[in-house]
Amino acid sequence: xxxxxxxxxxxxxxxxxxxxxxxxxxxxxxxxxxxxxxxxxxxxxxxxxxxxxxxxxxxxxxxxxxxxxxxxxxxxxxxxxxxxxxxxxxxxxxxxxxxxxxxxxxxxxxxxxxxxxxxxxxxxxxxxxxxxxxxxxxxxxxxxxxxxxxxxxxxxxxxxxxxxxxxxxxxxxxxxxxxxxxxxxxxxxxxxxxxxxxxxxxxxxxxxxxxxxxxxxxxxxxxxxxxxxxxxxxxxxxxxxxxxxxxxxxxxxxxxxxxxxxxxxxxxxxxxxxxxxxxxxxxxxxxxxxxxxxxxxxxxxxxxxxxxxxxxxxxxxxxxxxxxxxxxxxxxxxxxxxxxxxxxxxxxxxxxxxxxxxxxxxxxxxxxxxxxxxxxxxxxxxxxxxxxxxxxxxxxxxxxxxxxxxxxxxxxxxxxxxxxxxxxxxx
Length: 427
Ligand code: MEV
What we know:
Layout: H1 18-29, H2 33-40, H3 47-53, E1 65-73, E2 76-83, H4 89-101, E3 106-110, E4 114-122, H5 127-135, H6 138-148, H7 150-154, E5 158-169, E6 172-182, H8 189-207, E7 210-216, E8 224-231, H9 239-254, H10 256-276, H11 281-292, E9 302-306, E10 312-319, H12 327-331, H13 333-342, H14 347-370, H15 375-389, H16 395-407, H17 412-426
Antiparallel strand pairs: 1-2, 3-8, 4-6, 4-7, 5-6, 8-10, 9-10
Helix pairs in contact: 4-14, 6-8, 9-10, 9-14, 10-11, 10-14, 15-16, 16-17
Bound molecules: (R)-mevalonate.
């Protein structure tokens, strides 16, 4: 039996108000007054908004938002808010965008804003026959789905297509139904999940199947955003740099170990804008990585080539299920501001901007890797974090960080020694 205050079985925790929850957690973890007041300060997310976003809220987690400058996308200049805890990410986009700005920047497009909901049907003795019986009812399916969301239909979205396939599984053949739904400016999870749940009993009745899972697919391959860009060879440091970037891409295209890291770099940019705009980072990440494996092996999301003129051409395609309405995007005041700064009017525009950011991020990572290596630039920024962790404040942060970089030793012990020396010198 745990002593009260040390057990995780806290009856009615969710019914407590935030102060009550903080009390309980403070008892459990031995938080002092200062630590409690840290949790009480929810920063620029009002406590009552936070409280309604998720369950059992005790506080908020602030992540810096940096602005990527120099971005020119489809002939329009944009400032890009990026929420990330990782140093170098924002600077990487600024640098990549600066090097292609005079050449016109990024060109983007999108395949559409359609989401897929899946319904799993099992226990069918005649799955092939059942599949056709389902497809024959497309008109009814359309009506049932559209009746779930008249607002979406009024906005030009709604049901688009019915697909069904027989899937061989370790548990035998099953029929998987896909509802293709245009969710317009919504990410669309709620809309398509409601449709799948509404339709499932009908599908079961029409076929005699047992209906099981009813949920969207995060492999949103009907919602693919594309970005391309040409960097003039002279603007990036010459043919050797270009060839280094190409070799880096060839490595990623052929090797999943490298592709995972290559794509992680792309997602550094993508997820930062997805998060800043209150969208679902995990949905986008799951979709991106599944898309990277769509040919049966995990590969690079981007492609790099030399143009006939010898310049460097990059392109990127990835599913980007993001929205402007619904969820945190609507309720989080910072997400609303991020959207205002971006100046996007539709979910498609947002997705296209994000794809351009992903490509810019990839360019900078590959260029750094192909030339000086990633640590030099990274460490310069990381040094500031180390300085802060060592206790530096105000102007001390820059001074200590500079000293660490100059010595090539970005380490906590060195930062502490430098800080002491600095304070002794001042004192
Ligand atoms: C680090 O967050 C991202 C990189 O590893 C990406 C890459 O290797 O392409 C630098």
